[in-house]
Every structure is written in structure tokens, then in C-alpha cells.
């Protein structure tokens, strides 16, 4: 099904913004810092399980989604905590965000591709 013009415009804007973030290290670092600072409520330079769980719950609520169960949040935390020190650093969050943005670029590209003709 073809996209509506406003949907296509929004998707193209998102695609272009993500491409810029992924190709400009200073822009990526600025976004990473903003996201990390938003989650790091204790302002100690690392993210603990409770901070991540609170952020996920708030984000889900803003999007009208049900928050994942505590055990699911623990699983997400373990995946992000690459060095198993029970804390998520800026660098570890950066690895996740870069991968997430790359995946979103691929999804946008697929949605923007014209449908195949039979």
C-alpha cells in the first residue's frame, strides 16, 4: 500500500536525520549525551537498572504502550551492559543507539522503496 504524502514526508525526514546522525560523529555524540543525561537521573555518569526501567516505562507511557515487565527490563539491561559491571556507560549506550539508528534507517528505506510491479 503506498504511503500518504505526509507519511512519506515524515519518513523521509526521519531517514535523512538518521543518516546525518550516523555520518556525523559530533551530531551522534550530542544526541547520545542528551539521551544519556535524560536517563541518568542520579547524575553519576552511569545508568543503573532502575534508571533504565524508569526511562523505558516513561517512554512507553508517552507512546501509549504497555511498559515491559521488570524481568524484560533486566534482560534489556544485561544486553546493554557489555562489560558486565552492572552499570551502563555512555559508550555502551552509544553502541546500542548506533545499532538502533542503523536498523531504523533500513526500515525507513524499505518503506520508502516504491512497490514492485507485478
TrEMBL record:
Pfam families: EF-hand_5
SMART domains named among the record's database cross-references: EFh (SM00054)
Keywords (A to Z) from UniProt: Calcium
Protein name: EF-hand domain-containing protein
Domain EF-hand residue range list: 27-62, 68-103
Alphabetical list of SUPFAM superfamilies matching this protein: EF-hand
GO molecular function: calcium ion binding
Organism field: Astrephomene gubernaculifera
Amino acid at each position: 500500500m503506498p504511503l500518504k504524502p505526509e507519511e512519506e514526508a515524515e519518513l523521509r525526514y526521519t531517514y535523512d536525520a538518521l543518516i546525518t546522525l550516523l555520518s556525523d560523529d559530533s551530531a551522534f555524540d550530542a544526541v547520545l549525551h542528551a539521551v544519556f543525561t535524560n536517563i541518568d537521573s542520579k547524575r553519576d555518569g552511569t545508568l543503573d537498572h532502575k534508571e533504565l526501567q524508569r526511562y523505558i516505562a516513561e517512554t512507553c507511557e508517552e507512546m501509549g504502550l504497555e511498559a515491559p515487565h521488570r524481568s524484560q527490563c533486566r534482560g534489556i539491561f544485561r544486553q546493554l551492559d557489555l562489560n558486565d559491571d552492572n552499570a551502563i556507560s555512555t559508550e555502551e549506550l552509544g553502541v546500542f543507539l548506533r545499532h538502533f539508528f542503523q536498523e531504523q534507517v533500513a526500515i525507513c528505506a524499505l518503506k520508502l522503496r516504491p512497490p514492485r510491479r507485478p
